[in-house]
Amino acid sequence: MYDLTDYADMIADRVRMDAYALALKAVIKPDSVVLDIGTGPGLHALLAAKFGARKVYAIEPNDVVHLAREVASVNGFADRIDFYQDLSTNVTLPERADIIVSDMRGSLPLYGKHIPTIVDARERHLAKGGFLIPGRDRVWTALVDSRAAYKEMINPWSKPYALSMEPIKQTTLNSWSNVVPDRIRARHLLTEPHLWTTLDYFSIKDPNVSNSGIAQRASRDGKAYGWLVWFDTELIPDIGFSNGPDVEKISEVYGRGFFPLLEPVPITEGDTINLSLHAELIGDEYEWRWHTCVRSQDDPDVIKADFEQSTTIARAYENKLISPHISNEQPTLGTDGEVAVFILGKLDGETSVESIAQMVYQAFPDHFSEPSKALFFVHEITQQFKS
Predict the structure, then answer these.
(1) Which residue spans within 78-192 are E strands per DSSP?
(2) Full-prediction pTM beyond 0.85?
């Protein structure tokens, strides 16, 4: 869950916010119905109302939605914005929206349930001929000479106090990191940017992306440390932004993905580099696979590097280390657990949260310093387990 500091960073990011505001202003008409998915503190919903939307529906699972409701009231929009504390996939609106605005990306658009949520929203909530904001994201990749990004990942495991941490180092090299946009710039690229995939939110159905056909020639000499992956977005036609390494004014909210090689590889201009990059949504998280093959420009039969990497390897290794400890645990129920069990027993669809909180405060007087503490605890439990 985001906290207010995270939301503040998003609002302060003028590259992101100005583009979203321009896109909303361009498409909203006086009779528009707008759906804001993941509204957070409600800024997109507030802008939609400010720009004249007839009705705005704002959905957010986080408790910040209560503050968003207050902010809407302070600005005089309480009668035009309806807030829902839930996931959009659980909500049925009283009408379809002409415009759906959202930003559920992480540092890359392939993040969590972003795409399944968009597909559901498009099919159940969007009116015919309506707008999706964003409309599409394009994801790019290039081989990079960035010792700093590589070292940042492996330095903690590079023989601290002359001790080998090799198993952890290898696990780390089968994961990817979010690098701040300024860390890798255009001068670090060893190949031209290659379009890995286009995520067209008006038509996309499959959250998984696979591309085995990326073949490039090195554009200069250098040393390859990994792959940079970034995206640019089209919110609506002619309005968007990019987080590419050649962009001067960049969004601070989104990073870039750095997918390391298993070891640095000397590159000569003209070398052939083949990349297979795959992302598969498993549960709530993406698992990534990347296969890199570098062939010499002097002799195509000479393979300078051939690396198969996967976050599945990293996760399997972590599970191998952790699972025996989990299996052998013999946990007992703590006081918070006892209170949670008590609360769950009261969820009958008729008893109010306030009434349950009063019962909890009476049953566990030593656990809560004041009734409001019990009320918030009950609220957290009911939000997690309500039907």
Answers:
(1) 81-84, 97-102, 126-133, 136-144, 177-179
(2) no
